[in-house]
Amino acid sequence: MYLPGMKIIQTSSVSTDSFKGINTVKSYDMQYCDDLFNMDNSFYPALSTKEGIYAKEINDTVTGITFKNGQAVYTTKTHLVLPSERVALTLSEGEKTLINMGAYIYIFPDMIEVNTANSPATVRYGENISTTGSFTESNTISYKPAVVYGKSLYLKVVKSAYHDNYNKALQFAVGDSVTLSYTFTSPLSSVTREFKHNLTIQRIENYETAPTPYIEIYFDASRYKNLNYFELFDMGPSSGAQGVSNAVITKTKPEFDFVTEYNNRLWACKRKGHEICCSKLGDGLCWGEYKGISTDSYVASVGSDGEFTAVTSYGGNILFFKEDRVHIVYGTKASNFTVSELKLRGVQKGSEKSLCKSGGLLYYKAPEGIFAFNGSVSVRADTDTGKTITDTMTGVADNNSIYMTAKNGDTYVYDCIRKSWHREYIPGVITPLADNGQLYFLRYINNSYQLICLNKPYDKDFSLYTDSLEFCYLTGHIAGRDDKMRNVGKIALRIGAECKVGCTAHIKAEISYNDGEFQQIYTHSFSEGDKNGILIIPVIIKRCDRYRIRISGRVTGTDSLGKVLLYGIKSYMQEGSDIV
Fold this sequence. Notes:
It contains one helix and 47 strands. The protein is mainly β. Among the domains are: 11-51 and 470-575, Galactose-binding domain-like (Jelly Rolls, Sandwich); 131-251; 354-427, Thrombin, subunit H (Beta Barrel). The longest helix has 5 residues, at 165-169. It is elongated. The two termini are 31 Å apart.
């Protein structure tokens, strides 16, 4: 009697030796993963723990910050701090936006201009525009076909060599809301009273070719049904109002929530408003000069509902975002500026600081996630993360990386070169900054302000902020057997480390079967001075439908952190049967 011969179980292996970051759709392939925390592709194809956070303390209360000529410039409650001096300013309370334009720094919402080309720096404040003239109330009565009363209110400003009222009058525009104040002395009782009314400019007539040039500024009188509303006694059709003196119209300096610079102009809008504006060419304090020349200011109204949420320049145009659309301004000067509208997923309220550019695309935080805009359409950019991110975010980018951080510190980083996502934790972020190929965040943490560099800084004033960093790599659900009834019998993890003097690294490997609890399968500590040490960690896999692997740990250091690298994962498959 002969027994059948023994049959050798055939085995095969599959190696994963390159890693492509978070992708929850493809995480069944170990090139991708469900979570990657404080690990990136800087040592591609291997995964490695990231560089530590380098920071510089700022021993001031920072209300706004920018970079000028490669150095940080910021405002406090009372000063603008330049590298060479502290410029005393009269500032309101609250956060500031600092905008660079040539040698100037503009501070909003206070509307202050600081000329850094001068030594010491000179300061100019935005002013309310006022002009005085002779006030006229013209009344008309038409009897045919019916009796109709009409009213015309206007201020006449005559050009004079002795004052600049005429030049100031040129800065008013149709649609401006102004305040008219004047003194009225009654011809009957000789009683003098002060009056102030809010009016809207209806039209402007400029008689610059007259022997004595003058401007007539007409106001909308439709709301004043009573001919005697202004308590004036002139009932003639065109004569000046009797008893009126010291007539002055004033337009307060504009207040803006969102401001950006483009082509030597500042562009701005209010959050709750319908107007988009730009300043005079080269002058960020002049928003109301309309002389019909190429340097004019510009204002336009849009008809869409909802609040503005952000403004930026992109692709040679200016973009004014709302949550559900963007208004795009094309053109090179006031005479040819045109506004178009695109309906798309726009910038989330409160995420105006998320706008950043990389690889020719504009990235920003929309209400449900991170989007990319190419000038005509916007698409979801963070689908690989599998997350719906509702928190407001702050963003900064270059052509290598995009950082988007939420208020709670959760940070999503996109490697533009390797096309991969990973996560970090950066709490307390206030303002994003980019300068000279370096990316920064200003943050407030532990009762102090810090400027942190997101890639290794050139500036020697930056030092390692933390002496330890936790990390984690988590696979998706990996099939324990395939359609050919082959089972994963063993896996091997190839992990290395680089620990310079003063550095250590600790790792822990865990496995979960069929969504069960994670079980520790291996731990190891790399000592100070270990370099290019590589571990081959064999793991015998139980029979299962699916499993997950988690590699986590901590790196420490003084001047620099230790580094852990995941070089590869090798799976050994065995032929099986229908019976598990």
